[in-house]
Task: structure prediction
Amino acid sequence: MEGLKKDVIRHVVSSLGSDYASKSAYNYYNALALAVRDRLIDNWIKTQRSYYDEKAKRVYYLSLEYLPGKSLMNNLHCLGIYETARKAMSDLGFSLEDLAEQEWDAGLGNGGLGRLASCFLDSMATLGIPGYGYGIRYDYGIFHQVIEDGKQVEQADNWMRVGNPWAYERGQHLFPVRFFGEVKNWTDEYGRLRHTWTAGDTVLAMPCDMLVPGWDNHHVINMRLWSARSDVEFDLDFFNTGNYLGAVEEKIFDEKISKVLYPSDQIEEGRELRLKQQYFFVTATIQDILRRFRKKHQDMTELPQSVAIQLNDTHPAIAIAELMRILLDEDLLDWEVAWDICVSTFAYTNHTILPEALETWPVSLLERMLPRHMQIIYEINARFLREVERVARSEDCGQLCHRDLDHLKQRVSLIQERPIKSVRMAHLAIIGSHSVNGVAALHTELLKARVFDDFQRLYPQKINNKTNGVTPRRWLWSANQPLSRLIASHIGTGFVRNLDELTQLEPLAADPAFREAWRAAKLENKQRLQAYIKRKLMRELHTEHLFDVHIKRIHEYKRQVLNLLHVVTAYNRLRHGQAADFTPRTVFFGGKAAPSYFMAKRIIHAINAVAATVNADSRVNDKLQVVYLPNYCVSQAERVIPATELSEQISTAGMEASGTGNMKFALNGALTIGTWDGATIEMAQAIGPELLFIFGMREDELVSLRQHGYNPMLYYHGDEELREALDMLRSDAFSPGQHGLFAPLVDNLLHGGDRFFVLADYRQYLGAQQDVGRLYLDQEEWTRRSILNAARMGFFSSDRAISQYAREIWDVAPMAGLQNGKGA
Ligand code: GPK
Result:
């Protein structure tokens, strides 16, 4: 402890240039972070060196998004110095919790997809897998959300304004990134046609490394984030021609590439700068991968034995064309050889079946920005379509009937002609990869049967499932110390590394004393949340209420509106005195809406309007409260999830690819009210469906309802309570003076076809909520179920997910000496 204290003081003085006697929490947080980083860097160097020495096969995880959140607490826990740090900082006059609050969340992602990437890096580090995360170091991460007059207002997230003590910026290792220009054709000495791309613009990519430690194993992996730097400073021409200010403007223009994260989630924006971001990130990453590979290898055909590249959705899919370009134009390999290398190296993860999320890029834009890549994509497509034709005409063409060949070719082509001629990035990712995976069992089945059915017939081995998982380090141990300590006192700490060990809790569910202790941990977390809400929102929570929580991005398919209709109905029953047996509850909502997503923003407004009305109504507000948590983010999730008793996972069946919040809640002892969707299905199977509150129509039922003609008006007319709730929303009951404010929301349900079947599931949802309320009155039974939920969540560790990727897709093994945890 004395060592750490000394280091902290030294950093306050010599790294931060401050007086250690002036007790600034900001300085002491930064100094502590630097002292922790010092303890990581030696192991990072040793880890990286061991990969070279052992010629280990490396895994590269390519993702445009990461959501690490805050690093301090997690890193202290991984290093096993949390208690030491707590005492050291308390000696210096600080509470560790307060210091941790000084850190800004690294919010370099939108939601589940980015958080999954961060959980995966944590698991690779813990399992000892030679992994690297690659991404973009956005100057501005996901916007900061404030709620003003009930509406979302976006503010810039200037997360690095005060620097980032965790990152190493490596300004001396710059990689060139080229755009635009033209392609020249030439003939090589064997008479083969060759291509050289001479680019118009050049930008530089600077690596920033964030260290990702494993749990108690001395293994530290790297997350390398690229930041755009102009090369103008090196362009003497500008100065010679006297155009100094022009040079500066160009510099600013170049550095715009990594300026901001696009804040839309599962909605395609199709902006030119976004494509620039993708290629900028991809080319720098591929150059870095090949630089490392070439240190030990000359023969490019050995690449797939040494390198696995995982594409996190299609955002980095242009990597396939980029690797082809390098192999063809720089290494001068033949097409077939280059293509085999690519397919064997790449694998692709799909995260959604929503059609509006599937990426396409206009051919005209690609031709201009990346002319050589567009040529390569055309060639990939031509060869692929010939192959399709061959398979279709062959005897074992199965269901491929060659009468339909033209249609089949149109459907699978990399190029779509309408509405504008564009490249389908998912098709590029599928045919350029040896593995295509979905993120939960149902999702993968839907990929095979619906979205990519043609590809499933063409390549029956390619599509596979890897159900998502979450890291128990952050989402149980670090976020929920009261519960973790209780668990550890009964079964030891092995569960943090091997989450299956939680099954040892099962017999304890029958032990009244253990149940009481379990409830005490929950209450402690509820009180902690209460204090936080008081500080931030100046509101008093009732900790004896059932805490009912719906936090995730705002999206119509996630059906925050269904939850809201339940709240309005409960409000009406209480007002009308029809709810004598109502179980008091506080309903929490939280989540960001894409700034361009009109309906999602209106939903936020409606939730806040209903909240204001309900909370102000003294007839009901001792029994029902609604809280909107502004700026939902990773660190807020860490506070809210441990305090939650009811987890809302109520997406339209078939639409939530997996969900990962669902896992975090159950792991922390919340019971789930949910639809038969995503990974909630597998959770119900692992836990026992009777221990969750499952309701609503299933995916196949919705398909047939749709086919037979779904008429939301029938539900409206047939259900008095539903009608009352919708009529109130449409009138100005919650928006006095702003008549019609929420009409778009209601019209969407009644006259817009209710694409997400809110009305079809309303009555069943109410029934399930009634069951929840009733069960909550029986605290012993509720607690028993809560314990069993957590005890059966072992499968949903990201360690299990990553082990499956490693074995079944990447063909990599953990580093020797790390298999059993402790490393050298
Ligand atoms: C899926 F397609 C996308 C996307 O653009 N962003 C995103 O967060 C989510 N996702 C899914 O919606 C979740 O169901 C899933 O658990 C998560 O990705 C991780 O796979």
Summary: The mean pLDDT is 96. The chain has three domains: 1-53+71-104, 58-63+110-362+433-467, 539-779. Residues 477 and 485 are 8 Å apart (CA to CA). The domain at 58-63+110-362+433-467 is CATH 3.40.50.2000 (Rossmann fold).
